[in-house]
Amino acid sequence: MTVDYAKVGLKVGLEVHQQLNTATKLFCRCKPELSKKEAEITFTRRLRPTQSELGQIDPAAYFEFQKGVKILYEADRETSCLVEMDEEPPHSLSMEAVEIALTAALMMNATPVDEIHVMRKTVIDGSNTTGFQRTCVIALNGFIKVGEKIIPIQHVSLEEDAARKTGQSGSIIHYRIDRLGIPLLEVATAPVISTPEEAGQVALAIGKILRATGRVKRGIGTIRQDLNISIDGGALVEIKGVQELELIPTVIEYEVQRQLNLIKISEELRNRGIREGEIKEEFIDVTDIFNQTSCKVIRKALEGGMRVFAVKLPRFAGLLKWELMPGTRLGTEMADRAKFWGRVGGIFHTDEMPAYGITLEEIETLRKRVRAGEMDAVVFIADKPENAVDALRAVIERAKEAIKGVPEETRVAKPDGTTSYMRPRPGAARMYPETDIPPIRLPEEYINQLKANLPEMPEEKLKRFISEHHLNEKLAKQLLDSEYSGIFESIIKETKVSSTFVAAFLTETMKSLKREGIPVEKIADDQLLELFRLVDKGEVAKEALPEIVTWLAKNEGKNVYEALGSLGLRMLSREEVEKVIEDIIIKNRKVIDEGKDKAFGFLMGVIMKELRGKADAKLVSNILKSKLNLK
Ligand SMILES: [Zn+2]
Description:
Blueprint: H1 5-8, E1 11-19, E2 41-46, H2 59-65, E3 70-75, H3 95-107, E4 111-112, E5 115-116, E6 119-122, E7 132-146, E8 149-160, E9 164-169, E10 172-176, E11 183-189, H4 196-212, E12 223-230, E13 237-242, H5 248-271, E14 284-285, H6 296-303, E15 307-313, E16 323-325, E17 328-329, H7 330-342, E18 348-349, H8 360-369, E19 377-383, H9 385-404, E20 409-413, E21 419-424, E22 431-433, E23 440-441, H10 444-452, H11 458-469, H12 473-481, H13 485-494, H14 499-515, H15 525-536, H16 545-554, H17 560-567, H18 574-587, H19 589-593, H20 596-611, H21 617-627
Parallel strand pairs: 3-10, 13-20
Antiparallel strand pairs: 1-11, 1-12, 2-3, 4-7, 5-23, 6-7, 6-22, 7-8, 8-11, 9-10, 12-13, 14-15, 15-19, 16-17, 18-19, 20-21
Helix pairs in contact: 4-5, 7-9, 11-12, 12-14, 13-14, 13-15, 16-17, 18-20, 18-21, 20-21
């Protein structure tokens, strides 16, 4: 589907969240790192709705509370203390994080606030032990230039990262609190982005500026983008957690496609003359229809004492199977809501029948029982009556919204760029002051000093990479777009390895390894530096680098020397190389007798096959030439 994005009135705002590379967490002095160890401490909490000082209960918080969820927190002493466990008030704000945030903000032409006020933002999913997230605005009203366009930066903020979800068993959610409190920089643009490609370019430009500070973390999960997307006649939909930059345009294309289809469905429903009031919460127990069913899911539910409840959606026939974006139909959206609000595994509906072992006869009886005609759809659910009714109520709610068009909601991005329902959009009553931390004044002299010492901007760096390191423009650009421009400069400074080789390895080779499914983001900067030092000393062959990097990516926590040992990649001494060459010469006497010049190329091939990664090709060539008495 080709879409004229100007015509549909696409507006996108970006929120970039970037973990900072600081010595400590934001409000305590724990290491800001994810633990690879087993948890040493666990404790549980119940979710409770937080009442803000304005006396309003956040509707989203309230509903999530109704799910009756318990949280199990996992911790270890190295990455968390009493602050993360909410047993102790927060310590002072990390001024190192403030400085990085201010630096980035000034590079984006934003105006620092006079005083930093730490606020509490209600969180309702248990991802913070306190029930809120601490956040503070650092600077306001900046802008960046992307191509010829000015993109306003509404604010640059500092916040604590949330705990990370490690699993769920029944109604107990598991969170590891090592990530909780890691300093996170938030950059929010105005909703002025008008095409999917432009959103990708803006995210890349912001990412480059953040990396230009030289003080941000890199690797998967260290940068996350949220998107606010709307079109004319649609609604504002917030999409959370896009981790791959390349995915941003796809996420937007799919969301526009989804909203356009929802608008078409709403037009169709209005053409069919259906009104909201006609969709009624009449939930009918139809268990007996399925007493003899060959549908495994329903049979198993009935054996477990559950019931089947059904509801009629008047004049919805055919619309539930309407595809909104790949793999997502209106029926899928109803199922997502049912799962969320009703804690059920899924729904059945007549647009997909007969299927799953449910017969035409059962469906005919079901239609009669709920008095559904040919133009009506029927949704039914097998579960505990209480859950089934909550779930059907959510289905009714979603059906009513379908008449209006696109519902405002928060969705979560999936790795293929499609999205699924996460929760309703939170209400406005979400922020209130953090009384444990006094406001922090930012003196003008301090700001001026930072301003006078800002890091090099990406475009200046590009010019310098070309003039100073003799990279061609394409390679220099690729390097700046990658996460490796910082480590590139360290390698160039410390070794004599060719800058073009280093740059090509950090961009093209790393990218192609990633494409093959190697998790290259797990390679730490100091490992890369160590590898190139060894290349420089002639102890590792350039050709062996992809193999070593692959091994390191698959063996987290191991070092470069363990990689070399395990791969048998120790470089051979000159004597050892000579011995291998002599052996091969003896075995190939016949070829040499036919002509030394011709034999040289053939023997090089045979020898390098044996010595690849263990000896330098140039060394081999020199030894072979002298053994063959060639010049
Ligand atoms: Zn701590």
